[in-house]
Amino acid sequence: MGLCLTHPPEPGDEAAFEAEKEQLKIARIALRKVNKIRQQQLSASAAALTNQDRNSSTSLIISRRVPINYAAAMTGLTEKAIHRMIRNGTWLEGHEYNRAPDGQVTIDIEGFEAWVVHGRRTA
User: What is the pTM of this model?
Assistant: First the structure.
């Protein structure tokens, strides 16, 4: 039998109805307590991270030139699309991408942004 608060219990089911109603009340109280504990844990975690950031001497450094897989994640392009633009000459070496001495291709994020915004290459 399920608890239905919109329909009164049938005659003879009042005791079961009241028992179910009490269980529902207890479950709601327990859920509120669980949610309160979760909120406290989240608040404590956020405070700890904020304090860690304030006390930390390290910071996030975003490089101008990044590997293709990072550029793909940052720009929303696929790695295949990036390779295609390099191969087709849409992007020029020294403008939108560079080759490291070891041959690794890196994408110039500033060059990419100029290409997107202005449709032209950076100098």
Answer: 0.48
DSSP letter for 93, please.
B
Euclidean distance between CA atoms 107 and 97, whole angstroms: 4
3-state secondary structure of 16: helix
State how far Cα 13 lies from the chain centre.
50
Output the CA angle 118-119-120, nearest 5 degrees: 90
83: containing domain: 65-118
pLDDT for residue 28: 73
Instruction: Find out whether 86 and 76 touch, Cβ atoms under 8 Å.
Output: no
Q: Provide the number of structural domains found in the chain.
A: 2
Residue 73 is assigned to a structural domain of this protein: yes
Same domain, 111 and 74: yes
> Does one domain contain both 78 and 39?
no
| pLDDT tens digit sequence for 2-33 | 555 566 667 777 787 787 777 777 777 766 76
